[in-house]
Amino acid sequence: MSGPRARPEIMSIHAYVAGDSKLPGANRVIKLSSNEGAFGPPPSAVAAYAAVAAEQHRYPDGGSGELRRAIGARFGIDPERIVCGTGSDELIGHLCHCYGGPGTDILMSMHGFTMYQMSGTYAGSRVLKVPERDLTANVDALLAAVTEATTILFLANPNNPTGTLLPNAEVERLRAGLPERVLLVLDAAYAEYVDKPDYDAGIRLVDAGENTVMLRTFSKVFGLGGMRVGWAYAPAGVVDVLNRVRGVFNVNLGAQAAAVAALAEPGWVEKSRAHNLEWREKLGAALRRAGIGVHPSEGNFFLADFDTPARANAANNFLKSRGVIVRAVAGYGLPHCLRITVGTAEECGLVADALAAFMQQQPSLASVDA
Ligand SMILES: *Cc1c(COP(=O)(O)O)cnc(C)c1O
Q1: What does the mean pLDDT of the chain come to?
Q2: Are 105 and 128 in contact (CB under 8 A)?
Q3: Helix then strand then coil, % of the chain, to nearest 5
Q4: Element (H, E) at 162
């Protein structure tokens, strides 16, 4: 072999497998595989995107100034401490490259978001997956895994794909137990869906020190996954670092316009949140009645537990035969589960019916414990 060769760790990365979006032969596809939000994009975002179409020869504002001011106003935070990215994925990557690298360890929990592993490995770090308790990040285990080499700890809260939430007091205990030099990255992609009165997505901890970052995205509740917009709220030192390395024009013109408009769409988050609470509960209850285990979730999705990988596969194939796409999560170490996004009322009904029919075909499964 004499051709060009990538660093060996690159070849250990598995290319990201996104949620399917097409099924050969199905005339209607119900896509519940990527947590995209039940209602499509906000109408005002669609209009704002269209309105800048004739300006697309212009470079966008490289610093996403108007968008940062809109985010700052919405969340009551300083726009100077916000960095926008091409999805929060871009920012995850930059954090890994800037604070990780060869000789460093990056920590995440066992069933944490896979992007941390991919980006950390790409940066040259060793990425350690720390055991969880009841599919939930375990603060004692995470703290016990910290060494001199640890530079970043990623925590998605709520986590994808498990949907589990670490209570505020536990997140604070985690921060307090970490060395000052370790960057704690709180990924709150699903913050708007959380239904816990004391939940803090991360703003308090970012404000409390120099070493915590909060990541947010427009891809979930705001319905703009295709636009690729995410943001970080971070201490000044981290903002400075990210601004040195991010793509100079990383958030494109249409994306900035759409995101600003999405923030201003009246009642959008409230409506999405109320719908999600109602249908996450109803769909979960329907699956339980059908004999399928359902893990409690604080996101706009949940894990349906089929007890064995074979049953989960069979259920997945059955759903596909009915035009329903959900997410297999074997790559997350959960081969017995499927992750299902909460869709519209109609979509939830179709999934519930399909899975009830699936379970009826397998009488021996009807006793699977929740
Ligand atoms: C969907 C998701 C993201 C968002 O990614 P974008 O790049 O902003 O689309 C980040 N973190 C978690 C845990 C997610 O599930």
Answers
A1: 95
A2: yes
A3: 45, 15, 40
A4: none
Boundaries of domain holding 333? 10-41+268-359
Which atom of ligand 1 is closest in space to residue 88's alpha carbon? 8
Q: Indicate if 32 and 56 belong to the same structural domain.
A: no
Whether 363 shows a pLDDT value over 70: the answer reads no
pTM over 0.85: yes
DSSP strands (E only) in the chain: 30-31, 82-85, 105-109, 126-130, 150-156, 183-187, 212-217, 230-233, 293-294, 301-305, 324-325, 327-328, 337-341
From the CB of 230, is ligand 1 less than 6 Å away? yes
Q: For residue 12, is pLDDT > 70? A: yes
Distance CA 75, CA 262 (A): 14
Q: Do 152 and 78 share a structural domain?
A: yes
CATH of the domain at 295: 3.90.1150.10
1 in a structural domain: no
How far apart are the C-alpha atoms of 118 and 18, rounded to whole Å?
13
Q: Is 225 domain-assigned?
A: yes
Q: What is the CATH number of the domain that holds 230?
A: 3.40.640.10
Q: 296 with 334, same domain? A: yes
Q: How far is the CA of 140 from the centre of ligand 1 (A)?
A: 26
Which of helix, strand or coil describes residue 305?
Answer: strand
Ligand 1 test: best mutation among 67, 92, 113, most atoms within 8 Å of CB? 113
- The total number of residues shown for the chain amounts to 370
Sheet of strand 82-85: strand arrangement: 82-85, 230-233, 212-217, 183-187, 150-156, 105-109, 126-130
As a whole number, mean pLDDT of residues 361-370 equals 58
